[in-house]
Amino acid sequence: MQTDFVTMAGLDPKHITVILLATFSVILCAEAVPGWEKLSKEEELDLDRQLKLINKPAIKSFQTEDGDVIDCVDIYKQHAFDHPMLKNHKIQMKPTTIPKGIRNHESETTYKSLQYMLGNISCPQGSVPIKRATRKDLIMARHIKSIGFNHPTNTNASTSGIDEGGHHYAGVAYRAFVVGGRANINVWNPSVKVNQFSIASMSISKGPKQQMNNVQVGWGVNKALYPDGSRLYTYWTGDGYQKTGCFNTLCPGFVQVSTKIHLGLNLRPVSTYKGSQFHIAVSIQQDNSTGNWLLTFFNEYVGYWPKALFTTMADGADYISWAGSTYSIITDPTPTMGSGHFPKEGGYGISAFVNSIQIMPNRFYKFVSPLYYVLDTFADVPQCYDVIKNVAKDPNWGAYIFFGGPGNCTFQ
Ligand SMILES: *[C@@H]1O[C@H](CO)[C@@H](O)[C@H](O)[C@H]1NC(C)=O
Ligand SMILES: *[C@@H]1O[C@H](CO)[C@@H](O)[C@H](O)[C@H]1NC(C)=O
Ligand SMILES: *[C@@H]1O[C@H](CO)[C@@H](O)[C@H](O)[C@H]1NC(C)=O
Ligand SMILES: *[C@@H]1O[C@H](CO)[C@@H](O)[C@H](O)[C@H]1NC(C)=O
């Protein structure tokens, strides 16, 4: 299968679409037929072999209401350390520097249930919570990976109206040296079909498209992977989405440190139209002394992507974006993004927001609010998904965007 990604990455866009249609119909059949009868015996065995590598022995396990199994795995035996670059890796248990400028204001939009979310899963000392991977995770992740997950890169945003994979975006970007960023991302549960996704994320990258290094965090909805709604997700790549990288902890790379917050966490409740609003607070920063890219969720240090995974992002990055993004196969109407409402229809409670956008533009380890003009807005199909940016006088709101739209656009 690995070879397939490589081959597909080299194909021209028309061929990719054809292959995708073929592979997605396989998934859909598999979805429809319980027990994965559509997979050959060899494919099943191959998936099981992979799962055996990914899922490490559990010291203790939790079953969530959504049916996920969360395993507490010995922190030194997690799948991350199967990465050849991470032999004899020294785990970074704490950030070297706690950045200045982090605001921890409580507001209506803060997760009232965060304590509840944090309280439920707590792994014994020396172990960390990792969502147990399933065959379905691998099948979907494989296809999502193979389509490149083209988050806006440091090439110019497409203006042609449609790009090859049926990816669409609306957000803002800062294009200059950067070692970190943070934001509050308003959480929704947009309507998507089984072979579509809709996400909102903060994404940091560097490098030419073919070798792009990228780390991203946000919420995502994908009916096959997460049938029950919006989840905390991460993604990384060290080579332009070709051979390296994956969602969450499905491949060796991300080192989990928190004993409480796992990747793939179900985010609830979600915001409602003209009703209560909820957000997640996320930050990513490159550690001053180790060069690792550290992930924080609210005040919890979740873990990190080791410096060794990256080529161009070993020393800082040159692009950071905050955006909504959708994917659908090209013949389908596109899914909704954010709340499903355009920014022009209204702000808070109507369209989705990202606020308190902050960047760490140098090695002084301070998050600062970017000035209005340094954020570039991009929206590849503004008639389907749009974005507006502004900087509020209220420091709790700061630099922000409203983004999204109803989708349901067809391009063929
Ligand atoms: C958390 O634990 C409480 C008490 O055991 C339970 O009622 C609740 O459903 C759990 N929540 C989740 C999200 O699993
Ligand atoms: C983006 O577009 C501008 C204007 O067309 C061009 O000058 C610049 O080089 C482009 N940047 C990249 C990274 O392609
Ligand atoms: C970051 O590292 C540099 C070089 O090692 C050092 O000069 C600087 O003081 C460090 N900054 C902080 C905030 O620790
Ligand atoms: C999507 O667009 C089609 C064709 O314009 C329309 O018939 C349908 O009602 C729309 N669906 C939604 C959910 O708006």
TrEMBL record:
Q: Where is the Neprosin PEP catalytic domain?
A: 162-410
Q: Which InterPro entries match?
A: Glutamic_endopeptidase (IPR053168), Neprosin (IPR004314), Neprosin_propep (IPR025521)
Q: What PROSITE patterns does the record tag this protein with?
A: NEPROSIN_PEP_CD
Write down what this protein is called.
Answer: Protein neprosin
What organism does this protein naturally occur in?
Ziziphus jujuba
Instruction: Tell me the lineage of the source organism.
Output: Eukaryota, Viridiplantae, Streptophyta, Embryophyta, Tracheophyta
